[in-house]
Specification:
With 179 residues, this protein is of the alpha/beta class. The chain is built from seven helices and five strands. It is 47% helix and 17% strand.
Amino acid sequence: MEYNKSDKSVTESVDILAKNVVKYCCCKDYTISTAESLTGGMISKFITSVPGSSKVFELGVCSYSDRIKNKVLGVKKETLLKYTAVSEQTANEMSAGIQDLSGSDIAVAVTGIAGPDGGTDENPVGTVYVSVRFKEKRNTKNLRLYKRYDNLCREDIRLLTTKEAFEMILELTKKAEVV
C-alpha cells in the first residue's frame, strides 16, 4: 500500500486516538507510562497534548541507547546481546521496566528501525516492535511497516508506530475488562 505523505488523516487519527486514550484512562482512573526508542517521545507528546493528561500520564522515558534501556528500564544485557535492541524480547522488557519504574496501570514500549539507515536483511527499515501492558496482561506486535507500506520516510514510520501503539492500548485495555 502506498502511504500518502501529504495525507493528514494519519496525524488527525493519532490526535483522536490520543484523546480517546486519555479520556478512557480518566474515566477508568488508569495511569499510563511510555518507554520510547524510535519514536523519540512522540507517544508522550501526543498524550500530553491532550488537556487533562496530567491526571493519567505518569512517566515517559526516551531510551535511545542500549545503556539506558539497560540502566533505566532494566532490559538485560543478555537480551540486548542475544536479540538486539530491535526485538520482541527487548520491547517486552522495556514495557515491564517502565511499568515497574512508574507503577502505572498501562505501559507502552516501542523499539525499531526508523531509517533511513540501520536496516538489515533480517531487520529492514520499518521493523518495529510495540509492547503494551495493562496490569498483568501484555500484547506485543512486530508491525512490519516495510511490508504494509511503500516508500516510508523516518517521520512516517514514527507516526504510524505512534498510531498503532494507541490502537493497541485501547484494544488491550478494553479486551482485558471484558474477560
